[in-house]
Amino acid sequence: MGLTVTHIAAGVALAHARMATLEQELNAADSRLGDGDTGGMLRRVLDLMAAQRMDGIDDVGVSLGILAKAAAAATGSSLGTLLATGLLTMSKKTKGRTEVPWSELAPLLEQARDAVMARGGAKLGDKTVVDALDAVSSAVAGAGDQAAIRARAVAACDEALVRFRNEPCRMGRARMYADKSIGMDDPGMLAFARPSRASVGVVREARSACWTRQ
């Protein structure tokens, strides 16, 4: 079995639930290097994404497109725009498919990464969400099952945070505090990494949802 709309909806629900405790952590991290609103922004995005109804939709690309539009509508922030860009890119690549093999996830993430880089102007190594996305896309390459992808993705996010923690931020508002940012996590990377831990339960949630509908 590959990635389906059921998995996507379950992942959004779990990430949304995670924001109950994550919002303030992200705001605090951002307040040291930015406006202090990353947590609030991500909560608004996930609030709207979680409100989207996927009942009767089995097209992976269509579901990702719906989430991209929700992300764009929820906020005008740069990070929210990049999230929408990545989702829209993956939507275009998967439209018309009811299931996407797990082995195709890495190239899909790579295409999303490239689109985000083109839209935001960041380069690999700038200590941004792009570096976290790149780490995950590289880590899941060659993985053909859900368990391996979940484990590799979470580990890759954690490793990326550690790797870049002692580097300066080179993009966004945080670049104005380049020296101060050394020793701190980039808020955008955190906003990508922390909700990804919720994906550990995606397959369990997806299977439960399928079982309930039977």
Automatic annotation (TrEMBL):
GO annotation, biological process: glycerol catabolic process
Top-level taxon of the source organism: Bacteria
One cellular-component annotation, GO: cytosol
Record-level Gene Ontology MF annotations: glycerone kinase activity
Keywords of this entry: Kinase, Plasmid, Transferase
Keyword Metal-binding among UniProt keywords: no
InterPro entries for the chain: DhaL_dom, DhaL_dom_sf, Dihydroxyacetone_Kinase
DhaL domain ranges (all copies): 6-201
PANTHER family found in the cross-reference section: TRIOKINASE/FMN CYCLASE, TRIOKINASE_FMN CYCLASE
Protein's UniProt name: Dak phosphatase
